[in-house]
Amino acid sequence: MTAPTTTAPARGRTHPGWWQEAVIYQVYPRSFADADGDGCGDLAGIRSRLGYLRDLGVDALWISPFYTSPQADGGYDVADYRAVDPVYGSVADADGLIADAHALGLRVVVDVVPNHCSDQHPWFHQALREGPGSPLRERFHFRPGRGADGTEPPNDWISLFGGPAWTRTTDPDGTPGEWYLHLFAPQQPDLNWDSPAVQDEFRSILRFWLDLGVDGFRVDVAHGLVKAPGLPDLGHCEQLALLAEKRVPYFDQDGVHEIYRSWRTVLEEYPGQRIAVAEAWTDTLDRTARYVRPGELHQAFNFKFLNASWDADQLRELVALSLDAMRAVDAPTTWTLSNHDVVRHATRYADGDPARGVRRARAAALLMLALPGSAYLYQGEELGLPEVTDLPDEVRQDPSFLRPDGGNGLRDGCRVPLPWSGAEAPYGFGPVPGGPAWLPQPAAWAGLSVEAQAGDPRSVLELYRSALRVRRSHPALGAGRAVEWLDLGPGVLAFRRESPEGALICTVNTAGHPLPVDGSALGSLLLSSAEPPSSIAAGNAGNAAGGAGILLPADSTAWWQAP
Ligand code: GLC
After folding, report:
1. Domains along the chain?
2. Residue 495: exposure state from Cβ atoms within 10 A (0-12, 13-18, ≥19)
3. Cα separation of 431 and 427, whole Å?
4. β-bridge partners, 63
5. Which pLDDT score, from 0 to 100, does residue 246 have?
6. Could you say which of 177, 180, 302, 455 has the lowest number of CB atoms within 10 Å?
7. Which atom number of ligand 1 is nearest to the Cα of residue 77?
8. pLDDT value at position 235?
9. For 249, what's the count of Cα atoms within 13 Å in the CB-facing half-sphere?
C-alpha cells in the first residue's frame, strides 16, 4: 500500500480535507487508453497516461468498474468484486496503478456496485442451483410469481432499462420457478440489503480495496439498496409519474443511511482521509444532502446542476439551492457537467449548433471550477468532445438499447474511446494506427486529440489546464460554502469569492450575444473562456452599463482578480 505524495497547498491557509475541494477526473476504463491493442482500454493504459492527468492539474481520478464482469452493462455487472477482469489486467496492475498515481500526487477513487451484482456471480449461481428455500436466495429478492401458475411478475415495477424489473427462473428440475428482481438488466440481480451476509460482504470488499491503497469509492446507485417493505405494487401510470421524480419504493428509502453510517466507520479505520461519493438520484437537493450528513458519506453528485439549462437565472437558483442544502449538513457541494451515463455537455448545450455547444461548454467549465467545493470532470470534456450521435446499431452496447422494449439507450455516444494523437483512428487510443477500438471514433476527432490541442492557447485542453492551474493557486478558489452574488444585469450570472489573501469574481454571460456590464468593480482579467471581454467607451451606444463599460462575449465566463 502506498500513500499519495501530498503536494503542499499553494494557498496560504489551512488545507481542508483533500476531497472538500478536489477536482476528480472520471476515467471510463474501456475508453481511456488501450495498452495491449485489443480495442478495449485497460489498467496499463491508464497507468501510461497518469502523467497527462497530473499535467492537466486534477487531484484524483475515479475509475469506473474494472472488476471481473461479463460486461452486460459495461462492468456495472460484477461477477467478482475482488478481481480485475482480464480485459483490464490484474490486481497487480491495479496495485501498480495506485502506487504510480500516488507517486504523482494523484488520488484514486474506485467504483463499488452494491445494489446488484452479475447473474454470473457465484452467489447467484448457487441460489439458482439450490432452488427455492436456499439461504443463498435470501441474498437476492426472489419471489413466487402472481397468477394461477405464477406466470405474472411479483409486482409491477419496471426496469430502468425497460421491461419488467423481474425475470422468471427455471428450477433445477427444469420447471418454471420463482422470479428475481433486477432494477436494471436481467443480468444484474438486485442484492437484498436486509441480509447480514450482504452487509458483511460489502464491508469486506471495501476493506479489500482500502488495503490495496485506494483513496475512496464512488457508490453506484447509492439510493437504491433498500426497498420498501413488502415490495409494494404501484399502478402503472402512477409509477411513471413517480419515477420521473425518483419517489418510488425502491429509491431513496430511509434505510440506506444506516448502511452508509456503517461504511463510514470502515473508511475511518484507515489513515489518510478515505472517502465515498454517492451516486444518489433524489427528487430534491435536501434529499441528496441526507447522504452526506455527519457520519455518512463525504460527497454526493449534484445531478440538479448537471441537468440545468444554460440560463443565468436557472444556474444561479441551482447553485444557491445546492450550496444551501449542503451547508445545512456541513458538507461540501460537488459540481459535474457530464459522466458516462449522459449526453456530453458540449452537445447538450449546442441546441443544434456544435460551435455554440463548445462555446458554452468552455464557459460552463469555468463556472463549475469557480464554484465552492469539489468538481468532477468526465474524460474527454477537457478536449471539448461532442456526443457521437451516429453510431451504427450493430456496434452499440448500452443494455437499454439492446432490450427489445428498452429506452433510447443513448449512453454509448459518450463512451467512444478518447483521441490522443495521430491522424488515423484509433488516434493513439490503442498502440497501432489502424488498430481496433470497441466503438468507432469520428474522423473529425483527429483534430480534437490531445496532441492536436496541446500548446494551442485557443484549445479547450489549454483552457482546462489554465483553469486548473489558476484554481490551484488562487486563494479564493476551491473549498468553501458560500458565494456573494453580484447583480450585473439580466443574462449575467456573477459572484464574488472572498479570502483573506484575495478575492475572485466570476462573470458568466449565458446570452447568445455580447452583453455590456459595469466593469468598474471587476478588477483585472485572470482567464476568459472566450476572447477577452472588451472595454466600451462611456457614451458608446452599447454601453448601457455606463461608467467603465465592459462587453462580455456571448456564452462566455471570465475570472477576475477582484480589487
Ligand atoms: C449507475 C451507473 C450506470 C449503470 C447503472 C447500473 O447509474 O452509472 O452506468 O448502468 O448504475 O449499475
Report:
1. 1-113 (3.20.20.80), 122-181 (3.90.400.10), 478-561 (2.60.40.1180)
2. buried
3. 9
4. 27, 110
5. 57
6. 455
7. 12
8. 78
9. 16
User: Which residues line ligand 1 at a C-beta cut-off of 6 Å?
Assistant: 73, 76, 113, 184, 220-221, 279, 340-341
Print burial letters for 34-55: b (CB count within 10 Å at least 16), e (below 16).
bbeeebbbbbbbbbbbbebbbe
Query: pLDDT tens for residues 86-111?
Result: 999 999 999 999 999 999 999 999 99
In 257-406, DSSP assigns E strands to: 275-278, 299-300, 334-336, 374-378
Q: Which of 238, 268, 269, 317 is catalytic?
A: 269
Residue 239 is predicted with a pLDDT of: 61
Please report the atom of ligand 1 found closest to the CA of residue 399.
10
Helices 91-103 and 196-212: crossing angle in degrees, nearest 10, is 50
List, for the chain, all residue ranges whose pLDDT scores fall below the cut of 50.
6-14, 541
Pocket test for ligand 1, best of 184, 187, 219, 306 (most atoms within 8 A of CB): 184
Cβ(310)–Cβ(512) below 8 Å: no
Ligand 1, atom nearest to 341 Cα: 9
Residue with cell 497518469: 50
92 in Cβ contact with 101 (< 8 Å) = no
E strand or H helix at 517: strand 515-518
**Rounded Cα distance, 22 and 8, in Å:** 14
Determine the distance separating the centroid of ligand 1 and the alpha carbon of 221, expressed in angstroms: 7
Among protein residues, the one whose CA lies closest to atom 6 of ligand 1: 76
What b/e string do you get for 126-158 counting C-beta neighbours within 10 Å, with b at 16 or more? ebbeebeeeebbbbbbbbebeeeebeebbbbbb
Q: How far apart are CA 217 and CA 110, in angstroms?
A: 5
Q: Give the active site residue among 220, 382, 387, 555.
A: 220
Predicted local distance difference test score (pLDDT) of residue 546: 53
C-alpha dist (Å) from residue 517 to 494, 547, 553: 11, 9, 11
283 is catalytic: no
C-alpha cell at 250: 425502491
- Cα 411–189–31 angle (5° rounding)? 30
**pLDDT confidence of residue 541:** 47
User: d(Cα 313, Cα 315) in Å, to the nearest integer?
Assistant: 5
What's the confidence (pLDDT) of residue 6? 44
d(Cα 425, Cα 440) in Å, to the nearest integer? 8
C-alpha cell read off for 276: 465515498
User: Residue 536 is which amino acid?
Assistant: I
